[in-house]
């Protein structure tokens, strides 16, 4: 064998220093992450944006080579997750299956759900079904990753097998494990959704913006996942670049909260704004009543030194959640606490009444408005200053 052939076998067509291989692995995996968040998640699953056929097919082709995932399967499983979130039917909820199971067996849970035809039929509609999807991407889903292995070995030699392994493991670890697991278990929340979704960190870079998971569950169809000024969604940056190149069209983004300072009474526009921003309203309520709850808990501790009272953090979590999503042990603890304090009882029940405004669909807008006006009147007459102040702010939603 010639020296050139031996060098080619040892280093591939593009020999690099050690750090060069690290950079290549990171770039290749990042393209895969961008493909998942832009194409599979925001475009296909939630229709937050439309992609030009050129961009759409690039993402499909890349995902075929780097993940072996079928578009219809991924979309169906993700849509079912939103429809059945935190219930036993949720394909990958750590709240029902345990955080350890989702972290360590996330990819296995995905494969199990992908074999359920009912899931694909019910939730997989509207995904690509053209000739190349039917005859290549779906029936030969794993041949694509084999092609990627050949390309990596040809370009980089034996180290290409390691780069390929990193590519294959990246999505199962980050998406199936971290986002589906930690994203419903640990982090911070901007919105009091009726689930356990969390923002892992405010800088959505490593996982393409998917770290902002609570924001996504609050406004599922939004093409933009960042919500606060300090949050950064790199996937949104890529979408804006594609849009400037006329390769993408944004269809939906989360609505922005606006206030009309001149409003003195709630009207139908107020009602609609509250329903639209219901998760932001629920979060604002918990924050606004935090001081009143802290004061009442301190008073209870002085009067009942022998009673085990919940922490302020736990009470705030109760205020930010619907009662039916709390575990049975939490509901029992909540009931015991409310029995000891009429103030906490009033604060909590007023919160549940407020949530019922966007939870009922059988009442007319006029009936819901009448209930909202009555709620504001009772809040301002409650004798709890933060509750009265929150009512005044609520009237200004526009």
Overview of the molecule:
The protein has 398 residues and is mainly alpha-helical. The chain folds into two domains: 3-250, no CATH class; 268-394, no CATH class. The chain contains 20 helices and four strands. The protein has helices spanning 3-11, 18-45, 53-66, 71-83, 94-97, 99-114, 117-123, 131-137, 143-156, 159-181, 213-218, 234-244, 268-276, 278-288, 290-303, 312-319, 328-339, 342-359, 365-380, 385-394, and strands at residues 49-51, 203-204, 232-233, 248-250. The chain has a two-stranded antiparallel sheet. A two-stranded parallel ribbon has the order 2-3. Helix 6 packs across helix 10 (159-181). The radius of gyration is 25 Å and the shape is elongated. 38% of the residues are buried.
Features of this protein?
two-stranded antiparallel sheet, 2 domains, 398 residues, two-stranded parallel sheet, mainly alpha, 63% helix, elongated, single chain
Summed over residues and divided by their number, the pLDDT gives a mean of 89
Spatial extent as radius of gyration: 25 Å
Helix content: 55-70%
Strand order of the largest sheet: 1-4
- Describe the largest sheet: 2 strands, antiparallel
Strand content: under 5%
**What is the general shape?**
elongated
Total beta strands: 4
Report how far apart the termini are. Answer: 77 Å
How many helices? The count is 20
Q: In the residues, how many domains can be counted?
A: 2
Structural class: mainly alpha
